[in-house]
Amino acid sequence: MSDQQLTPIEVQDIMKMLPHRYPFQLIDRVVSYQLEPEKTLTAIKNVTINEPFFQGHFPGSPVMPGVLIIEALAQASGVLAYLAKSADKLDSGLYYLVKIDKARFSKTVTPGDQVILEVNQKRLLRNMGLYECRALVDGKVVARAEILCAGKAGT
Questions:
Q1: Rounded CA gap, 114 and 117, in Å?
Q2: I want to staple 142 with a disulfide (CB 3.0 to 4.6 A). Which of 8, 107, 128, 149 is the partner?
Q3: In whole angstroms, how large is the CA radius of gyration of the chain?
Q4: Which candidate, 76, 113, 108, places its Cα nearest to that of 95?
Q5: Cβ proximity of 113 and 48 under 8 Å
Q6: Which residue has the higher pLDDT, 88 or 77?
Q7: Cβ atoms within 10 Å, residue 57
């Protein structure tokens, strides 16, 4: 059985994996993932003018806040951690953002953009995972970061 045969993962199933809800659920779909030989995941965030943050960021020139792009990458990392733990038949629990390193932003994200979120698990030590993450729009990197997430089992 292939690790990828259950994709795409739709928003209803993502909501079973993450505790986030509107307006902070920032993943609309998982389009692919693999658990072997590497743990990787690709997800989508569709950006619309209806996002509540556009009212103040910035009126007349809407731009998605960089911290929310990082949060979307962290959520994608959390989904990958959930899938990997579930495949190992371990308690999936919750995953918390612990640390952000090497964050870089190279282009603004605006309404109408589809952000492709790519995460790659670099290392797993105890209950902490280090993820290399990229956000792309139209094939161009708009943000990248290394994200450390820690799991809290049994929640």
A1: 10
A2: 107
A3: 15
A4: 76
A5: no
A6: 77
A7: 14
Distance from C-alpha of 80 to C-alpha of 39, rounded to nearest angstrom: 7
Which class for 78: exposed (0-12), middle (13-18), buried (19 or more C-beta within 10 A)? buried
Rounded distance, CA 132 to CA 73, Å?
Answer: 9
pLDDT digits (tens, 9 = 90+) for 92-112: 678 889 999 999 999 999 999
Given a contact cutoff of 8 angstroms between Cβ atoms, the answer to whether 115 and 142 are in contact is yes
Find where tokens 């820690």 sit: 150
Instruction: Tell me if residue 20 is catalytic.
Output: no
Topology of domain 9-152, CATH: Thiol Ester Dehydrase; Chain A (3.10.129)
Total residue length of the chain = 155
Rounded to an integer, what distance in angstroms lies between the CA atom of residue 98 and that of residue 96? 6
Domain boundaries, the chain: 9-152
Q: Where do the DSSP E strands lie in the chain?
A: 9-10, 29-34, 40-46, 94-105, 114-125, 128-137, 140-152
Helix runs in 11-153, H state only = 11-17, 66-87
Please pick, among 20, 57, 122, 134, the residue that the annotation labels catalytic: 57
Are 147 and 97 in contact by the 8 Å Cβ rule? The answer is: yes
Handedness of CA 52, 56, 62, 68 (dihedral sign): negative
Of 110 and 126, more confident: 110
